[in-house]
Amino acid sequence: MASITVRRLDDNLKAQLRLRAARHGRSVEDEVRTILREAANSSTSARMRGEVGEPKADSRASSTRDGEPGNGQFAQAPHPNPLPARAERERKITLIIGGGIAAYKALDLIRRLKERDAHVRCVLTRAAQQFVTPLSASALAHERVYTDLFDPQSEFDAGHIRLARDCDMIVVAPATADLMAKMAHGHADDLATAILLATNRPVLLAPAMNPLMWNNPATRRNLARLKSDGILVIGPNAGEMAEANEAGIGRMAEPIEIADAAMQVLRPAPTGPLAGKRILITAGPTHEPIDPVRYIANRSSGKQGFAIAASAAAAGADVTLISGPVGLSDPPGVRVIRVEVARDMLKQVEDALPADIAIFAAAVADWRVAREGDQKIKKTSSGLPPLQLVENPDILATISKLKQKRPPLVIGFAAETEHLIDNAMSKLLRKGCDWIVANDVSPSGGVMGGDRNTVHLLMKGKSGGETQIESWPVMPKDGVASALVDRIARNISGAETA
Ligand code: CTP
Which residue spans of the chain are classified as CATH 3.40.50.10300? Predict the structure, then answer.
């Protein structure tokens, strides 16, 4: 098969090709491929229509036995087992591998993405090449790997622009603190950052770094900036670090999680039963500081709220999840905002309005100390420290009672250890929400922190009608999540009246 080197074409033709490619948002190479494909297709269909001479065998093959028109795809004799329809267009991913110890996992990520039928083009930063070799990446991707912004082989037609745009999305894994800082500030001093600045495709970061770097205010600022710029983030997860005796949040999300998140991003426009609906969810505990080292908290793991967020996103909703401190990674396709204290949770909830549905699954601390100590409170011989408590804002009640911007469907949770239904019923009335998911959190049930939940759904009747109560069987928390999402979908579609 002959190959064409675009560089060797005459200048006028090259200029025309560049213009055409730019108009179509394609690389010059892809534009050439498209032109050739179009030319080949038009001569094939001309032959099918008999506009040009055609070998006899082919013309027989292009009509079917029953005299119906041929499908024009394969000029072959009818086959007893017809070929399957052409697979969905291959998704192209530019994978930027940053320089961190987690780079070795990026090699597995290439395989995971390819398993999901993605075409992967790898870019390795200079630091990444200290951890993995371009040869390993190219052997797994079955493609050449890109490392240099000034590579004459790929930059003759501004290859960094091709890598930035001739793809469906960009994944950065591992996204180091340095790479995130450069992105947040718009640097473009190497191939990876130039691609990230030049792209108009979705970008998914999988951060990986030491927990202290992750928690450093500079990284927090950069992360917030990137999220507000629309950059998607998966992880990092909590766990052991490569550094001896260190653990915390900073491990890169697992390759399968990243590959699934990427596929979620590449899904066509949402079509599920909650497509077009904005859902706001709170989850997890809050940590209310007593002094710089101590806080008031509870045993909530956040699992139920995270599962609801994942289910709602899978049903096509646009989901914002506002979570207290938990060790869970961001569910794919969900905008996650992490907070520590109840007052910040309320502020983030208010900022995220308007929403069609709000679900308050967080176990918000009811109290905080009136005066947080600036320094660690010391034990003294003069007795116990006076800790005066004040009440936190009730987020569910505040949002349920809004005059403006109240979401049309507000759902609360009632965590009870006794008189489950009675307490939940009075909470439903007191807080002013529409539905309450009541769950028994007695220590014997293992709900707090566990994976299963037994719930009762209380739905306030419309226009003062009677409250309906449904008791669901014990289910895993993601089962409760999908049952709740299903119930919401039926309710808003008008298929039932609560
Ligand atoms: N909630 C809230 N803000 C608070 C307290 C609770 O938004 N400051 C929400 C929870 O997210 C949940 C509902 O209110 O949806 C009920 O929470 P729960 O802890 O069961 O009830 P409390 O209001 O805290 O009442 P109590 O602790 O007396 O049972």
Answer: 278-370+388-492
